[in-house]
């Protein structure tokens, strides 16, 4: 069988042609890195965990009429998704204060916020740069209508997923969403997985996401496998 043509490739996944004009294959790698790209780790099967968690989450959002690019599962570590025109922004939704927010606002790390904080970051090589609505408009990163739509979709998705994880005794600390357009409609793209979210055990506050790699490969793998078991249950 001929190898599919690669369309784009990053540190944690790649996009390949699937022979259709309106869809692509999104394959998850066994490598993960921090949002700043300063630390990388890997273990066999990590890509499969992220693919299955991502599929479960997207299917759950679709059930609540939150549009995503997910179409179907195409393999153990591969999803078929809609081909999108991506918006060059990341929307970071914060429910709990982690280190950087704690330092900026002088509040204890782990504080549950009274209201979710939404921050836009411009996608670029290296560390993404935080921008506000004015930057988005001035530099044509998004239109006012798209900004409002992203806020609306992100707020709804966050509320739904907080409940989803809470029922599994998990705490959705934060998540990073990306968006794209298809047929003029703005929808959620990329992935929602432990590579792009911070998820803690609600009782112990144990980290079950990309931050766990700081404790070594064994803890990193154990954390991802434990999260997969609870999400897919």
Q: What is the molecular shape?
A: globular
Number of strands: 13
- SSE string, helix = H, strand = E? EEEEEHEEEHEEHHEEEH
Q: Kindly estimate the percentage of residues that lie in beta strands according to DSSP.
A: 25-35%
How many strands, what sense, and barrel or not for the largest sheet?
Answer: 6 strands, antiparallel
Instruction: Give me the CATH superfamily of the largest domain.
Output: ATP-grasp fold, B domain
Structural class: alpha+beta
Task: Specify the number of helices.
Answer: 5
The CATH architecture of the largest domain can be named as 2-Layer Sandwich
Distance between the termini: 34 Å
Please give the share of residues in helix. Answer: 25-40%
Structure, explained:
This protein has 2 domains: 6-82, Phosphorylase Kinase, domain 1 (2-Layer Sandwich), CATH 3.30.200; 85-214, D-amino Acid Aminotransferase, Chain A, domain 1, CATH 3.30.470.20. The protein is an alpha+beta fold. The chain starts with 5 loop residues before the first strand and ends with a helix. Strands 8, 9, 10, 11, 12 and 13 form a 6-stranded antiparallel β-sheet that branches. It has helices at residues 46-63, 99-105, 133-138, 144-166, 217-232, and strands at residues 6-9, 13-17, 23-28, 31-33, 40-42, 70-75, 78-82, 85-96, 112-122, 129-131, 170-182, 185-189, 197-201. It is built from 5 helices and 13 strands.
């Amino acid at each position: 069988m001929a190898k599919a043509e690669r369309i784009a490739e990053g540190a944690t996944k790649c996009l390949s042609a699937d022979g259709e004009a309106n869809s692509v294959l999104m394959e998850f790698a066994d490598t993960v890195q921090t949002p700043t790209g300063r630390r990388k780790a890997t273990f066999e099967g990590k890509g499969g965990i992220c693919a299955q968690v991502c599929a479960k989450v997207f299917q759950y959002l679709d059930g609540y009429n939150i549009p995503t690019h997910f179409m179907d599962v195409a393999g153990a570590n591969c999803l078929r998704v809609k081909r999108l025109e991506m918006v060059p922004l990341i929307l970071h939704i914060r429910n709990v204060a982690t280190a950087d927010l704690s330092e900026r606002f002088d509040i204890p790390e782990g504080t549950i916020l009274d209201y979710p904080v939404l921050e836009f970051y411009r996608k670029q090589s290296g560390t993404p740069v935080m921008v506000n609505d004015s930057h988005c408009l001035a530099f044509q990163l998004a239109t006012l209508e798209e900004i409002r739509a992203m806020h609306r979709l992100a707020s709804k998705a966050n509320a739904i997923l907080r409940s989803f994880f809470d029922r599994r005794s998990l705490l959705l600390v934060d998540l990073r969403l990306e968006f794209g357009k298809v047929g003029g409609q703005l929808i959620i793209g990329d992935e929602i997985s432990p590579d792009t979210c911070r998820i803690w055990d609600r009782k112990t506050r144990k980290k079950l996401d990309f931050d766990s790699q700081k404790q070594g490969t064994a803890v990193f793998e154990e954390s991802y496998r434990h999260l997969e078991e609870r999400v897919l249950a």
